[in-house]
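Private note to self, pasted from the team thread so I don't lose it. Backbone tokens:
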């Protein structure tokens, strides 16, 4: 897709149709109006207003200090620049610890312009997922490596390599789908696990470090432009697309979207076994 207006806005239904047709789609984080416009007119279907902004914008060493007010502010910025992409927004750390808090936090992001909210966790999210979806708030469940739980899981490491852990993740993904989750996001899991979960689920699966077989791919915008903060080790699943561009940053966004659609990215060097 060139930098022209879309024929129609991206929706959860259009993503489901892509899955049925076997078409891959690209996602990127966005935190302000300018980049939201550049990304959404470059063939990227999903914008994530991620709590990763705590690290790449605010200078924190994790996502934990990010507040709901931070997320609402950046959500409003992205909404103003977006040109037809689906906008997903993270519920930040401890903003969905109870049912009432989940509803209030998700409602704040939806009022700011989100089309779907993302929560980190496994089967324990089932009730929150059901609660939100029953009230008209679509949910993406983020599984695998969940940065908000980094202190519990003991660092940034691949999840699901143990067979029992992998089977548990498959079971939990099915539970979350049955609870109403519209998208499952898998981070840092082995290729075969990413493929099996994608094939078992009817909803769209987005991967980051989850292999080439997921329905969609996502990266942090700064990472795919080679702008990872010096304090952060560049993950294996990251590729810098800027050197491939003949049109600066907009060209890098287009190159990333095309590489995802054609299956060129991620390659074996970006995957975990």
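Design output:
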């Amino acid at each position: 897709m060139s930098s022209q207006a879309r024929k129609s806005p991206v929706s959860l239904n259009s993503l489901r149709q892509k899955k049925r047709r076997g078409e891959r789609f690209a996602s990127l984080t966005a935190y302000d109006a300018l980049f939201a416009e550049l990304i959404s007119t470059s063939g990227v279907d999903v914008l994530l207003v991620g709590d990763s902004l705590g690290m790449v914008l605010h200078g924190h060493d994790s996502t934990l200090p990010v507040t709901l007010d931070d997320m609402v502010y950046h959500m409003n910025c992205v909404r103003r620049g977006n040109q037809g992409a689906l906008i997903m927004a993270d519920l930040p750390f401890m903003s969905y610890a109870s049912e009432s808090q989940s509803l209030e936090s998700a409602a704040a992001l939806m009022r700011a312009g989100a089309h779907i909210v993302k929560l980190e966790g496994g089967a324990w999210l089932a009730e929150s997922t059901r609660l939100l979806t029953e009230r008209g708030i679509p949910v993406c469940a983020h599984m695998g490596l969940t940065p908000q739980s980094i202190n519990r899981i003991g660092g940034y490491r691949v999840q699901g390599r143990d067979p029992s852990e992998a089977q548990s993740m498959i079971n939990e993904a099915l539970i979350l789908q049955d609870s109403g989750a519209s998208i499952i996001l898998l981070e840092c899991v082995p290729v075969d696990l990413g493929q099996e979960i994608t094939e078992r689920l009817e909803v769209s699966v987005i991967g980051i470090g989850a292999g080439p077989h997921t329905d969609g791919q996502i990266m942090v915008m700064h990472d795919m432009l080679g702008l990872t903060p010096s304090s952060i080790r560049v993950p294996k699943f990251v590729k810098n697309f800027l050197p491939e561009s003949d049109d600066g940053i907009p060209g890098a966004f287009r190159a990333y979207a095309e590489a995802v659609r054609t299956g060129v990215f991620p390659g074996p060097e970006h995957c975990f076994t």
